[in-house]
Write a structure and sequence with these properties.
Strand content: under 5%
Order of helices and strands: EHHHHHEHHHHHEEHH
Low-confidence stretches: 211-226, 238-244
Largest sheet: 2 strands, antiparallel
Oligomer: single chain
Length: 269
């Protein structure tokens, strides 16, 4: 029987995302196989895993650090190591978590729910034209489910269980929201990646790991029902389309107005 702790510390937070990264690694190819939006380039799983690896590199040596310090390190690692659109959105997810846990030595259910709420806000702000039926929708569903979990007495374990289930349910609905997914016969790759991440977190807090980040037993995670496989008809129809490059870069400076910069770049597109 796993001990249920009312509050978790920085080492617990490290363990949660080390476990999430380990589970993501075992799902990389399955997630890549779902990747059709915004372009069918088959790299969403790889990008999310490499972004998480950057997070792990930051927090791995942070034994005995506070939860707030670990969360801040995760956000910095995700920002500097973000790969692709999914990695950028994931970095803002971590930024929201860091804001929600800022200054905290440890955290309980309410602080974790607040962190997921911040994650939702920052993830949506990271995208100029948010599209539903994507990873963003799953993040929103997660935050809403987390908030609803506080309607009654809730532990961190309760929140993580509710959030993982909500992520899976939301992923399963993505083809109903985005026609390109429905045409291709798949769920959203980024959403599935987030569901995998949150399942790793759940397994960690419920003691389904034998050591930091080591899944026991090691196996991939899916959703209820098949995630799908990109149809050959879809690939044939899109094979002749020309796609540009996906580019990320960092702007650093003092007193920067993010909204003005975003609007200026949108006008250049």
């Amino acid at each position: 029987m796993v001990e249920t702790k009312s509050r978790l510390n920085g080492d617990d937070l490290r363990a949660m995302f080390l476990a999430a990264t380990a589970l993501m690694e075992s799902n990389v190819e399955a997630i890549n196989a779902l990747n059709v939006f915004p372009v069918p380039d088959g790299d969403t799983g790889t990008n999310m895993f490499l972004t998480l690896r950057s997070v792990v590199d930051r927090i791995d040596p942070m034994e005995k650090a506070s939860a707030g310090d670990v969360a801040a390190a995760m956000a910095q690692g995700a920002l500097m190591g973000a790969r692709g659109n999914s990695g950028v959105i994931l970095s803002q997810f971590f930024r929201g978590l860091a804001i929600g846990l800022e200054g905290a030595s440890d955290f309980g259910a309410e602080e974790l729910v607040s962190a997921y709420r911040e994650a939702r806000e920052h993830a949506y702000q990271a995208v100029g034209d948010p599209v539903e039926g994507t990873m963003l929708t799953v993040i929103r569903s997660v935050a809403e489910a987390a908030e609803a979990s506080l309607d009654g007495p809730a532990t961190v374990q309760d929140v993580c269980k509710v959030v993982s289930a909500a992520a899976r349910d939301s992923v399963a609905r993505t083809p109903m929201m985005l026609s390109v997914l429905r045409d291709a016969g798949v769920v959203d790759a980024g959403g599935q990646g987030l569901a995998v991440l949150l399942e790793g977190v759940r397994r960690s807090v419920e003691g389904e790991v034998s050591d930091l980040g080591e899944i026991a037993p090691p196996k991939a995670v899916g959703i209820e029902g098949p995630t799908g496989l990109v149809s050959t008809e879809f690939l044939a129809a899109t094979n002749e389309e020309i796609y540009g490059y996906c580019t990320q870069f960092l702007i650093q400076g003092d007193g920067l107005n993010v909204d003005v910069i975003r609007d200026t770049m949108r006008e250049m597109a």
